[in-house]
Amino acid sequence: MAVTFNDIVERVKQQLLGYAVDQEVITFLADSMTATDTMFVCDPETTSSAMSRGMIEIDDELIWVKKFDKVSGTVEVMGGLNGRGYANTTAAPHSADTFVKVDPAFPRKRIKEAINDAIRGVYPDLWVFGEYEFPYVAARYEYPIPAEAEDVYKVVINTIGPSRVWFPATKWRYNALASVGSQVAPTPAPTGRSIQIYDFVVPGRNVRVTYRKKPNDLVNNNDDFETVTGFPERYVDMIVYSAIWRLLPALEAARLQQSAVESTERSKIVGPKDASNASTYYMQLYQTRLREERERLLELYDSNFTFNG
After folding, report:
1. Pick the CATH number of 23-104 from 2.60.40, 2.30.29, 2.40.300, 2.40.30
2. Structure confidence by residue, pLDDT tens digits, 221-256
3. What is the CA angle 184-185-188, rounded to 5?
4. What is the reported pTM?
5. Is pLDDT of 183 > 50?
6. Left if phi > 0, otherwise alpha if psi is -120 to 50, otherwise beta: which for 279?
7. What is the CA radius of gyration of the chain?
């Protein structure tokens, strides 16, 4: 079963908040709302006990609440449209029965950012393979390859005859700073990346370049992790650990305000640096998994020299 962006967000939230200890305070929309509504209606039965003035979350959007009516469930946004799409989130329409989370400890927007930071952070320790194929032209040595190519792993050439064997090229050079030419002259490598082939190749035969590239970010809730990022599904737990250690230090910053009696009393139970210690624990889990996957990747795909024998 495919693991989606939303699945990973929920896994991170469950690790951060616990399965039952820290339950979010929620109500839900009684009617749908548009991206420009500054008043909306929540379920009256739960609004009286759940809603409060301040920040709420609906789907991925953060909204700042000015006031609410306990009887009707009507909620008014602070500052009109300025209260929509708060904290660099995007104002969006929301359908009826969508959960409204009051003062979320870890907004989905921040969790998604941490997940994508984690995905980008594993490169270059872990990478994704891409392929590009082109016909060899007589007397031409340099060919453009996709701009996403960060390094070349191997180059193979299609042989003549019924065997259809692709033999490894042994004399080639990857150029990460290829000249893009000018608007007047023909551009030898418009992508800024090229491969230079010095082997003898029969003109018209295809050359296939396997290159390393960075993973792609997840964008939509239903994005499949493996399909979009290019990483195998077994990396998901590693990404979850990385996202958690990036998010947990935010709890330490919240403890710096010790003026409230509740904060002072709670400090006796939850000591200073506990969030940082938990963050370090998850970082160690992440580093262990990263090391395991890197060793596995290097064992399977060491280098072009190993491929060439």
Report:
1. 2.40.30
2. 999 999 999 999 999 999 999 999 999 988 776 655
3. 135
4. 0.86
5. no
6. alpha
7. 27
156: closest CA among 195, 98, 114? 195
298 secondary structure, DSSP code: H
- Residues 122-157 have pLDDT tens digits of 999 999 999 999 999 988 889 999 999 999 999 999
Cis peptide before 215 (omega within 30 of 0): no
204 neighbors 147 (Cβ within 8 angstroms): no
Please state, in angstroms and rounded to a whole number, the distance separating the CA atoms of residues 88 and 305. Answer: 47
User: Would the pLDDT of 22 be above 70?
Assistant: no
The string of DSSP letters for 47-75 reads: HHHH--SEEEEETTEEEEEEEE-TTT-EE
Say how many C-beta atoms besides its own lie within 10 A of residue 168's C-beta.
Answer: 14
Strand partners, 130: 211
Tokens describing residue 290? 């990263």
User: CA nearest 201: which of 166, 237, 253, 247?
Assistant: 166
What does the angle CA 271 – CA 272 – CA 273 come to, to the nearest 5 degrees? Answer: 115
Give the pLDDT score at 215: 98
**Do 157 and 206 form a contact (C-beta atoms < 8 A)?**
yes
Domain boundaries, the chain: 1-22+105-126+217-303, 23-104, 128-213
| Residue 38 amino acid letter | T
Nearest to 205 by CA among 156, 172, 152, 144: 156
How crowded is residue 161: how many other Cβ atoms within 10 Å of its Cβ? 7
Confidence of residue 185 (pLDDT cuts 50, 70, 90): very low
At position 195, the amino acid (one-letter code) is I
Q: 179 with 158: CB under 8 angstroms?
A: no
